[in-house]
Design brief:
Blueprint (H helix, E strand, L loop, with lengths): L3 E5 L6 H10 L2 E5 L10 E4 L22 H16 L4 E4 L1 H9 L4 E2 L4 H7 L8 E7 L4 H6 L2 E6 L4 E2 L6 E7 L4 E6 L4 E4 L19 H11 L1
Parallel strand pairs: 1-2, 1-3, 3-4, 4-11
Antiparallel strand pairs: 5-8, 6-7, 6-9, 9-10, 10-11
């Protein structure tokens, strides 16, 4: 039986995640504001707008497009799946949501010099930049020590949440990926669904390896 994967994403923007899960051998169930259904085999949190900074005890200095209903739904999902020890993958916003769910904080707006490498331009095209990976991490096993990823964000992880270990960093020190010490949790700041299968690109590593690995964890 194919692993059933719950995907939480922005309205009308889940197709790439669904495509990646299907190619990797899973059965996707994608929603905006999904119910806290823990009967599925794994959870993917997708990209989107910024998280309410009040959830990590900060005033709003640069956060945009806040969606309180989505924040609440996804924080509840993360905590429920982690309580049961089920695999969770966070992508871009999802990377940040998992961090906040575990008590971490965010940089609300990265520096202008960092934005040159991380933020989409006026044509809304992903940036591409290298990341350096910690030896012995899951990503190191999948991709090696240095590899190229896409990028489209203006916020970043500041203080990692409880149990989360940074495993990849950008050229300027932005935390690009994390794993949990004991739970089956992977988070990445980039968008592997836009680097894999039907969306494979020649200027980045292959995002398929990450989805293949995640679906194996969910079997």
């Amino acid at each position: 039986m194919k692993p059933r994967i719950l995907i939480s994403g922005s309205k009308g923007k889940c197709a790439n995640y669904e495509n990646a899960v299907r190619h990797a051998g899973g059965e996707p169930y994608a929603f905006y504001l999904p119910k806290t259904d823990v009967t599925l085999d794994g959870l993917i949190l997708g990209g989107g707008a910024d998280i309410d900074p009040r959830l990590y005890k900060q005033e709003n200095t640069a956060s945009q497009g806040i969606d309180p209903k989505r924040d609440d739904a996804e924080l509840a999902l993360v905590r429920a799946y982690l309580k049961l020890g089920k695999p969770v993958l966070g992508i871009c916003r999802g990377h940040q949501v998992i961090n906040v769910a575990l008590g971490g904080t965010l940089v609300q707006d990265i520096s202008p010099s960092q934005k040159a490498f991380h933020t989409q331009d006026d044509r809304e095209e992903d940036r591409v930049h290298p990341v350096c990976c910690k030896k012995g991490s899951v990503l190191h096993e999948l991709y090696g020590e240095v590899f190229l990823v896409n990028s489209a964000h203006h916020q970043a992880v500041a203080l990692p949440g409880d149990g989360l270990l940074p495993t990849a960093w950008s050229e300027s020190g932005v935390i690009e990926a994390m794993e949990h010490k004991t739970l089956t949790v992977l988070t990445v700041q980039w968008h592997p669904e836009r680097m894999a299968y039907d969306h494979r690109r020649s200027d980045t590593t292959d995002g398929a390896a990450l989805f293949d690995h995640f679906i194996c964890l969910c079997r």
